[in-house]
Design brief:
The protein has 11 helices and 21 strands. About 35% of the residues lie in helices and about 25% in strands. With about 425 residues, the chain is an alpha+beta fold. The strands form 5 sheets. Strands 2-3-4-7-8-12 form a 6-stranded mixed sheet, with helices on both faces. A 5-stranded antiparallel sheet has the order 17-18-19-20-21. Among the domains are: about 160 residues, 2-enoyl-CoA Hydratase, Chain A, domain 1; about 80 residues. Its EC number is 3.4.-.-. It comes from Pedobacter vanadiisoli. Keywords: Hydrolase, Signal.
Amino acid sequence: MNKKKYFAILCLLLTGYSAIAQSTRKLTDSVSILLRHVYVFPEKAEGMSNLIQKKQKAGKYEQFGKPGDLATMLTSDLRSVYADRHLLVRYDPQLEKRISIFSQTRKQDTTSIRREQRQNFFFRKAEILPGNIGYIDFSNFPDTNALSRQTVRATFTFVAHTDALIIDLRANFGGSTAMASEILSYFFPSKTYLGRQYNRIENSWKDEWIVNEPSVTGGLSLSMPVYFLTSRHTFSAAEGFAYTLQQLKKARIIGQPTAGGAHATRSFALGQGYVAFIPFTRSENAASHTDWEGNGVIPDDTSSDTKALVSAKEIIYRQFLHTTTDSTEIRKFTWLLNDLRTALPVSEKDLPMYCGSFEEFTFFVKEGQLCGTADRKDQPYTLAYLGNNLFRGSQWLVEFIKDQSGNFSMIKLYWPDGWVDTIKRSANPEKS
């Protein structure tokens, strides 16, 4: 290779290296400026800024060939100073473009509304569980607009006449704090003081109140007991929703401690396709005088993710039993509690003593399990043993009752509505 060609290649390499250095310096300078002016903890912002500036000057960020890798490293470095899970640098040119357009026009992105609408604004399930318990499962808080409010109102109207409400936040990762406040307002019939919030951008504290606005809720006010299901994935606005109602003694939380992200963020376009999410607020709850940052929302009753719903049902049914004196209601909720019980092992040699006919109900052993039919023409079903001679059938629970001779001469059928049938063993049972 001749000297001129070698020199030309060297110049190209140096020019490319210089361009990369300028690019990373511009990015780190932008992040540093934002942190110093926006981040909720000024002293932490200073430490973060100093760290990334030091690493930039040492050329540590110029080794990353992919923009996404550089964004990941910047995020990791910032969180090494303070582990704020809301603090994030991301390489996302499309998002950066949308943020830039919004900053210039202040118009909401209609494509975002359509995208959320196709996901039913993140509401995945609303149903009435046995015992007149409402159940709502949603995975995010959508942006506030006419369509999302319509979906929220319809969902909570559907469960408005239940005796208890379970809200499943185990897979809810947060979202719009404005929508979280609007949903909170369904549970407050009158204006209520929540606490105060510090805004770093404005450098001021502001009292926070919740108001049930008829234009938002349609005047709907919910007063039934509320139970939240949480997990370690529950994050941000979802945590705030549960935390607020828990601290004001309006809800009971069942599950696992949440992720611990309490700071609201604002997104900033950094240029070159990069976006920064910078937390700029923190709250002081009126009851706790703090928030859930770092610690998460601590459940009132600990349960695994997979068992949280069953645990909530059990807590509600026991509460209903504790407060009712109606004999039918007592039988109904006793049935519901028994129906939640986990099946127990039963020895195959003990099964024949349950076999026989009790009017139209016939019980027999098949492939090592107790089975039954309510009519000889029906498809057989398998019974699950719950202990103390109690089995779960297809639509009912059956208890086998012994006589003075120690034989099972009678059964009691417990139905979900609280009705109980007592049936004697048939004198001449048909062979199974």
